[in-house]
Design goal:
Elements: H1 5-15, H2 20-29, E1 34-37, H3 44-54, E2 59-63, H4 70-82, E3 86-90, H5 96-102, H6 112-134, E4 138-140, H7 149-152, E5 157-160, E6 165-168, H8 176-185
């Protein structure tokens, strides 16, 4: 890892007032192995647009758990074509159709043990497989501090210990309203019916950001 905690703290101070585009440009200028992850959720078009501008051909990793809405899949395809994204999909070893037919679908949030296993199977395992393949030094993500309590304790740059890479969150200090204003200004689609079965609640972590 080429970034020490002290270096990351210094860079966060320097980047604090930078635009999301400038932050992504900085990340891509490091000439390190860089990926961007997406779930094609509500505001993902904003970060994908900027990655396409400043880091053309950056691998875009998407874990498709199989429970996305029709609109989400359609917008994912629209954005892929519009920005010529290099998207690599990783899927669970058990399809959603098989899970629904013979395994009872996805468990209730109240069943913590079953839900933890479900999350591991449909999201964490495919994600780990993706990172094992790409071994990135830099991971660009669309997370923001206003989304969950855990994310509020991160910063624009943070060290992901689990994957041993630098996590870059260009929209970290932006609120939902500011992001959506940006998206409207740039004619970017907001996915209003996005569904994540591993989170269900908007303020619940799915596990990917806990490294």
């Amino acid at each position: 890892m080429p970034f020490s905690l002290q270096k990351i703290a210094t860079l966060n101070t320097q980047l604090r007032d930078s635009s999301p585009g400038d932050i992504i440009a900085w990340a891509c200028e490091q000439k390190l192995k860089t990926v961007c992850t997406t779930n094609f959720g509500p505001h993902e078009a904003a970060v994908l647009q900027l990655v396409s501008q400043h880091g053309k051909n950056t691998p875009i990793i998407c874990v498709d758990h199989g429970y996305n809405t029709k609109t989400t899949y359609q917008i994912a395809e629209e954005l892929t074509q519009r920005f010529q994204l290099n998207v690599d999909y990783f899927t669970p070893k058990i399809t959603s159709a098989r899970r629904q037919a013979v395994l009872g679908g996805f468990p209730d949030l109240d069943d913590e043990v079953a839900h933890k296993q479900f999350t591991q199977e449909v999201k964490l395992e495919p994600f780990a497989r993706a990172f094992a393949q790409y071994k990135p030094d830099i991971w660009i993500t669309g997370i923001r501090k206003d989304q969950t309590e855990h994310r509020a304790n991160l910063d624009i740059l943070s060290l992901d210990n689990q994957h041993q890479c630098l996590k870059v969150a260009p929209f970290f200090h932006w609120g939902k309203e500011k992001v959506e204003n940006y998206m409207r200004e740039h004619d970017l689609p907001i996915v209003v019916d996005y569904f994540d079965p591993t989170k269900v609640l908007d303020n619940r972590e799915c596990g990917l950001q806990l490294g």
